[in-house]
Specification:
This protein has helices spanning 2-37, 39-42, 45-59, 62-74, 80-93, 96-102, 109-140, 142-153, 165-174, 183-189, 263-292, 296-306, 316-332, 335-347, 353-376, 380-404, 412-426, 429-451, 454-480, 497-500, 503-518, 526-533, 539-548; strands at 204-218, 230-233, 236-251, 552-554, 565-567. The protein has 578 residues and is mainly alpha-helical. GO terms for molecular function: sodium:phosphate symporter activity.
Length: 578
């Protein structure tokens, strides 16, 4: 009974991801089209990178943003060189989905730590790859020249579109909820103002095209369609033109076909509903997986998935995981779906972060092969540009893997993701802050600076980058050889607490949350005021703080007027590194 229920929840989980993508497109699709429309802005590589991130976050689909890019390059609105940074940005933006999915496991600290680390390893890989490959591309045009050679070398011909294997399973259900006309977003991006007021919600699913002849007047015989179809009556010159008429025949059958609501309202309704279904399915999936994968079964599965090949072939295990990740992503045709599906498994400990990393890298490759096959279905005049853009996406991920996987000491994304997981397990609100900063505030700030000109961006960015490098260097020396540093720099204790620790902010958020939860009301009575100012004094406040941070113990026997906190088993706490 548990296995059918597991498959049902997994199906609903995947369908909710599809509806979630549609909701984001309804809410922000036209905005995304407007952003892509300004090709003067996109000629700036940094601005192009940020636009790729923001648009992919808005529409929750790298496939949609990539298809817009291909359409604009094919129509000549901007060059392949200008599109490469946008492709890099879409690679970053697509990793936000599984990071959101990881938030659903925040109830258990250990599961949340593993799930968030498994989700953010994708983010870390993409950000590190961009930091290296974007400057290299701007300086040398590596990806552009390499893809030009590949396109010119191979005899590329149009073929069939990529198989939509997952859509065959999910579309019968999702089509009953919503259907979108994605050509509206592409049309706005390519400058078709006639689509500005057209709704993204598809109303007519089948349209017949008829061609009829129509006599019209022209100014001179030179404007006639042909000499045979040109005649003069008095002072008027006539010609015959063909008129194409679209006749709607079959109306779509989904929930919002006759709603008449604006796209934004429909998008917000679907966004709320899909998030509820997504969270519910994920929680039930985790509970079912915990009940199914327990005891000896869990140990066997963990051993099979996380064990390397015998010596000397152990190094091949990660590359086999990449092949599996690429194959599964090709089947489901979405890296977001695949990485979001393995996130709960990472959370409950079935898949280790070391094994999830190559699976994620393979997923990046799998989603680019789908784009390549889709590009091969383009018309002959658009094939070269479409195929070249798809190849840029492919080689970007290949070079990223070569940078951050083959040598174990270069697998920085794993260490970065583990650090983020530990931090979010300690301060759960940090996960939301991470999402807002990395996918909204930081890209928006960089976009604004890049629009102000390269002088402003260098003037602001260079000192900031220098400070980050200095902090990293000092942190490294503090850990490895503090004796080589001046006494004052051997720790960050000389700085204010909020500059080298998240504890002050955590205290503020905890107190605010406890006051809201306990419905503290500030009155003239001193006891009530004391409880609101120090919610830890109440038994409920103590219980909640002890649950939130088991390392904290209260000294009730202390005679001091304010609560005293000690760390169990620790007599001295080292300063927190920046």
């Amino acid at each position: 009974m548990k296995v059918p229920m597991l498959l049902l929840f997994l199906y609903m989980f995947v369908c909710s991801l599809d509806v979630l993508s549609s909701a984001f497109q309804l809410a922000g699709g036209k905005v995304a089209g407007d952003i892509f429309k300004d090709n003067a802005i996109l000629s700036n590589p940094v601005a192009g990178l940020v636009v790729g991130i923001l648009v992919t976050v808005l529409v929750q689909s790298s496939s949609t943003s990539t298809s817009i890019i291909v359409s604009m390059v094919s129509s000549g609105l901007f060059s392949v060189e200008a599109a490469i940074p946008i492709i890099m940005g879409s690679n970053i933006g697509t990793s936000v989905t599984n990071t959101i999915v990881a938030l659903m496991q925040a109830g258990d600290r250990n599961e949340f730590k593993r799930a968030f680390a498994g989700a953010t390893v994708h983010d870390c890989f993409n950000w590190l790859s961009v930091l290296v490959l974007l400057p290299l591309e701007v300086a040398s045009g590596l990806l552009y020249h390499l893809t030009v050679i590949v396109v010119e070398t191979f005899q590329i011909r149009s073929g069939e579109d990529a198989p939509e294997l997952l859509k065959i399973i999910t579309e019968p259900f999702t089509k009953l909820i919503i259907q979108l006309d994605k050509s509206v977003i592409t049309g706005i991006a390519t400058g078709d103002e006639s689509l500005r007021n057209k709704s993204l919600v598809k109303v007519w699913c089948r349209t017949s095209v008829s061609v009829s002849s129509l006599n019209v007047t022209v100014s001179t015989p030179l404007n006639c369609t042909s000499s045979e179809l040109c005649w003069t009556e008095g002072d008027t010159t006539w010609t015959t033109v063909n008129q194409t008429l679209d006749t709607h025949t079959d109306k779509c059958n989904h929930l919002f076909v006759n709603s008449g609501m604006p796209d934004l309202v429909v998008g917000l309704i679907l966004l709320a509903a899909s998030l509820v279904v997504l969270c519910t399915c994920l929680l039930l999936l985790v509970k079912l997986l915990n009940s199914v994968l327990k005891g000896q079964v869990a140990k066997v599965i963990q051993k099979v998935i996380n064990t390397d090949f015998p010596y000397p072939f152990g190094w091949l295990t990660g590359y086999l995981a990449m092949v599996v990740g690429a194959g599964m992503t090709f089947i489901v045709q979405s890296s977001s779906v695949f990485t979001s599906a393995i996130t709960p498994l990472i959370g409950i400990g079935v898949i280790s972060i070391e094994r999830a990393y190559p699976l994620t890298l393979g997923s990046n490759i799998g989603t680019t092969t789908t784009a390549i096959l889709a590009a091969l279905a383009s018309p002959g005049d658009k094939l070269a540009a479409a195929f070249q853009i798809a190849l840029c996406h492919f080689f970007f991920n290949i070079f990223g893997i070569l940078l951050w996987y083959p040598i174990p000491c270069t697998r920085l994304p794993i260490r970065m993701a583990k650090t983020l997981g530990e931090r979010t397990a300690k301060y759960r609100w940090f996960a939301v802050l991470y999402l807002i900063i990395c996918f909204l505030l930081l890209p928006s700030l960089v976009f604004g600076l890049s629009m102000a000109g390269w002088q402003v961006m260098v003037g602001v960015g260079a000192p900031f980058a220098g400070i980050l490098v200095f902090i990293g260097f000092i942190n490294c020396l503090q850990t490895r050889s503090p004796d080589h540093l001046p006494k004052k720099l051997q720790s960050w204790d000389f700085l204010p607490g909020w500059m080298h620790s998240l504890k002050p902010m955590d205290t503020f958020i905890t107190n605010a949350t406890l006051c809201c939860t306990d419905h503290c009301s500030f009155s003239k009575e001193s006891d009530t005021q004391d409880l609101c100012a120090f919610p830890e004094k109440s038994p409920q406040g103590k219980d909640k703080l002890a649950y939130e941070n088991p390392a904290i113990a209260y000294l009730d026997e202390s005679p001091t007027a304010t609560p005293v906190l000690t760390l169990r088993g620790l007599e001295r706490q080292k300063s927190t590194q920046l």
